[in-house]
Design goal:
This protein is an alpha/beta fold. The protein has 4 domains: 155 residues, Alpha-D-Glucose-1,6-Bisphosphate, subunit A, domain 3 (Alpha-D-Glucose-1,6-Bisphosphate, Chain A, domain 3); 115 residues, Alpha-D-Glucose-1,6-Bisphosphate, Chain A, domain 3; 133 residues, Alpha-D-Glucose-1,6-Bisphosphate, Chain A, domain 3; 81 residues, 2-Layer Sandwich (TATA-Binding Protein), CATH 3.30.310. Strand 9 and strand 10 form a beta hairpin. Helix 10 crosses helix 15. The longest helix has 18 residues. Bound molecules: 2-acetamido-2-deoxy-1-O-phosphono-alpha-D-glucopyranose (GN1) and magnesium ion (MG). The site of magnesium ion has 6 residues, from loops.
C-alpha cells in the first residue's frame, strides 16, 4: 500500500521553515510557530513506528515542559510507555529536515524499505497535549499525518506527560499478564489512589503539602487526583494546590514551577509559605518535582531530585529489610554527573548501595535503572522514578511474611510498586511517594534535609562559538575534545579543597554547561567561573548560520 499521494497532499499544508531540526533529549522543542511541519512529520514517524511494532499504539505528547508559553514541542512514547527507542531518533530528525514534500515521501518510503515495515499493517497512535495555546493547532497537524497514513488514533486532549506514558502502556498491555491499569485517565487516578491508601495504612501525615503546579496541566490533574485521595483525617495527606491557573497562558512556568525554583534557588514570589511549611513545585507537564521549605533562619532550602532519590532508596531498602526480602532484592541508584557529591557519598557510605552514573537525559538513567531489581533514578532537577524489575515484582508478590511486622512492610512495599509510575518520572506519583515516606518516618522537611549536607555548587551556562567541539567520556565527566581542555580543568580543580568540575555541551540549548563543587560557596563559584573561562577559550568559532 502506498501513502505517497496522501502524504504529499497533506504535507503541502505544513511547509517546512528554513531551519535545521534535531530530535534530542526532549524530542523537538522550540517556538511553537516553527513546529507545524515538525509535528506533521512526527505523526508520519509515529505511524511507521506503530506498524513496525505490529500495530501497538505509539504515544505522541505535545508539550514544551518548563519552557516559556510561546514554545511547544513534541515527543514520542514507545509501546511499553518508555521513550522512543534511541535508534529511531535519527529517523525523526531526517523526516523533520526533508527539504521538500517529495523528499519527505522519499524518506518515509526509504524507512519502510530499510526496516521492512509493512505499510498494510495496522497503525495506532494515542496523543495528548499540555495547556499551551498552540496545542490545538499542532494537534491538527498531527491528525493530518495520521489521516494521510490511515492510522487509527485516540485524542486524550489535556494530560500530563506521565499520564500519556501510563495510557500507552495500559493500551498495549491490556488483556495480557502485564496489564498495567485501566486504559483511561480515571484508571490512572484509581491506580495511584488505591496504592496510596494501602501505603498510608501504617503511617500518619502531618501538616500540609503545598504544591505549585507552574500554572500548567499539573494543576487540574492534581485537583482531579485529590478527589480520589483520602483527606488527612481519613488517613491521607492534606494537599493544597497553588499556581493552577491554566486560563492565562502567559502564566505558564512564569515565576513559579520546578525549573524556576531549582535554577533560581528560591520559592516562587507568590508563595505564602511560613518557615517549616512543606512545599513542592511541578514543571509545566508534571514530569518533574522538587520540594523545598524556608528554615528557621528564613533561608530557602531545596530538596531536589538527589534528595528524593536518597529518600526513596533508603525507604525501599528499609522495607526490604523489614519484610525479610533484603537478601533477595538488589537496590541501586542511578545519577548523572550533576548529582551533588554529598548525595553520592551518602548513598555509597551510609546507605551502602551501588551507584551508576550515566550521561544526562532520562533515557540513559531509565535504561541503567532497569539493570537493578529495584532501580532508583533521579536527575538533580527532579525528574525520576523507581523501577521494579519483573523478577523483583514476582519476588515481592510471592514472598511469605514470617511475622505481622514483616507483613506490614511487605504490604507497603507492594503498594509502592503500584504507586510509583513505572513508565517515566511522574511528578504526581513522586509527590505521593514522598508524602508516604515522610509520613512513615514522621519527618518534616528539616529532618529530611538533615540526612546529609550538600556540597556548595554552581551551575553556569556558557555561550560559545560552537558547542559541538566539546566531546565527553566517562558519563560526561571528562572532555576528550578539544585537546588539552580537560588537562587544564584538572589542573584547576586540583587547587580547590573538595573540588569537582566538568563541562559538557547541553543537549537542549545552544550552550555549554559548567558544573563545579568545592568546600565553600565562594570556591565553588570561583571554580565554576574559571572553568567557564577555559570553555570559552576552547569554544570554537561560530558556525555560519
Ligand atoms: C543540567 C540539567 O538540568 N540538564 C537538563 C537539560 O539537559 P541539557 O542537555 O543539560 O540541556 O534538559 C534535559 C531535558 O529536559 C534534562 O534531562 C537535563 O537534566
Ligand atoms: Mg517536564
Amino acid at each position: 500500500m502506498s501513502f505517497d499521494q496522501q502524504i504529499l497532499e497533506a504535507s503541502k499544508k505544513h511547509p517546512r521553515p528554513a531551519r535545521i531540526f534535531a530530535y534530542g533529549t526532549a524530542g523537538f522543542r522550540m517556538k511553537a510557530d516553527l513546529l507545524p511541519s515538525v509535528v506533521f512529520r512526527v505523526g508520519l514517524l509515529a505511524a511507521a513506528r506503530s506498524r513496525k511494532m505490529n500495530g501497538q499504539s505509539i504515544g505522541v505528547m505535545i508539550t514544551a515542559s518548563h519552557n516559556p508559553p510561546e514554545d511547544n514541542g513534541v515527543k514520542l512514547v514507545d509501546p511499553y510507555g518508555d521513550m522512543l527507542e534511541a535508534t529511531w531518533e535519527p529517523h525523526a530528525t531526517a523526516f523533520a529536515n526533508a527539504k521538500t514534500d517529495e523528499e519527505l515521501v522519499e524518506e518515509f518510503n526509504k524507512l519502510h524499505t530499510s526496516l521492512k515495515i509493512n505499510s498494510s499493517a495496522p497503525a495506532r497512535v494515542i496523543y495528548a497535549r499540555d495547556t499551551r495555546a498552540s496545542g490545538p493547532t499542532l494537534v491538527d497537524c498531527l491528525v493530518d499525518a495520521l489521516t494521510a497514513t490511515n492510522t487509527e488514533y485516540t485524542d486524550y486532549k489535556l494530560l500530563t506527560t506521565p499520564q500519556l506514558h501510563y495510557l500507552v502502556r495500559c493500551t498495549n498491555t491490556k488483556g495480557t499478564q502485564y496489564e498495567y491499569g485501566d486504559v483511561s485517565e480515571t484508571g490512572y487516578y484509581e491506580k495511584l489512589s488505591t496504592a496510596f491508601k494501602q501505603a498510608m495504612k501504617n503511617a500518619k501525615s502531618k501538616g500540609t503539602i503545598t504544591v505549585d503546579c507552574a500554572n500548567g496541566v499539573g494543576g487540574p490533574k492534581l485537583r482531579e487526583l485529590v478527589k480520589y485521595l483520602p483527606s488527612q483525617a481519613e488517613g491521607g495527606v492534606d494537599i493544597k494546590v497553588v499556581n493552577e491557573d491554566v486560563h492565562k497562558p502567559d502564566n505558564l512556568n512564569s515565576q513559579c514551577g520546578a525549573d524556576f525554583v531549582k535554577t533560581q534557588q528560591r520559592a516562587p514570589p507568590s508563595s505564602k509559605a511560613a518557615p517549616g511549611d512543606r512545599c513542592a513545585s511541578l514543571d509545566g507537564d508534571a514530569d518533574r518535582i522538587v520540594y523545598y521549605f524556608i528554615d528557621e533562619d528564613s533561608n530557602f532550602r531545596l530538596l531536589d531530585g538527589d534528595r528524593i532519590a536518597t529518600l526513596a532508596a533508603a525507604f525501599l531498602g528499609e522495607l526490604g529489610e523489614k519484610s525479610g526480602l533484603a537478601s533477595k532484592l538488589s537496590i541501586g541508584v542511578v545519577q548523572t554527573a550533576y548529582a551533588n557529591g554529598a548525595s553520592t557519598k551518602f548513598i555509597t557510605e551510609n546507605l551502602k548501595l551501588p551507584i551508576q552514573c550515566t550521561p544526562t537525559g532520562v533515557k540513559y538513567l531509565h535504561h541503567a535503572a532497569q539493570r537493578f531489581d529495584i532501580g532508583v533514578y533521579f536527575e538533580a532537577n527532579g525528574h525520576g522514578t523507581v523501577l521494579f524489575s519483573p523478577l523483583a515484582l514476582k519476588t515481592i508478590a510471592t514472598h511469605e511474611p514470617q511475622s505481622p511486622s514483616q507483613a506490614d512492610a511487605l504490604a507497603t512495599l507492594t503498594a509502592a510498586t503500584e504507586l510509583i509510575n513505572q513508565t517515566v518520572g511522574d511528578a504526581l506519583s513522586d509527590l505521593l511517594l514522598v508524602e508516604v515516606i515522610l509520613a512513615h518516618k514522621a519527618w518534616d522537611p528539616a529532618n529530611w534535609l538533615s540526612t546529609y549536607t550538600d556540597y556548595p555548587n554552581r551551575l553556569v551556562r556558557v555561550e560559545v562559538g560552537n558547542r559541538n567541539v566539546f566531546k565527553t567520556e566517562d558519563a560526561e565527566r571528562r572532555l576528550t575534545e578539544p585537546k588539552h581542555a580537560q588537562a587544564r580543568i584538572d589542573e584547576l580543580v586540583g587547587k580547590y579543597t573538595k573540588g569537582r568540575s566538568f563541562a559538557r555541551a547541553s543537549g537542549t540549548e545552544d550552550a555549554v554547561r559548567v558544573y563545579a563543587e568545592a568546600a565553600t560557596r565562594a570556591e565553588a563559584d570561583d571554580l565554576a567561573q574559571k572553568v567557564a573561562g577555559i570553555v570559552k577559550q576552547f569554544g570554537g568559532l561560530a558556525l555560519s548560520k
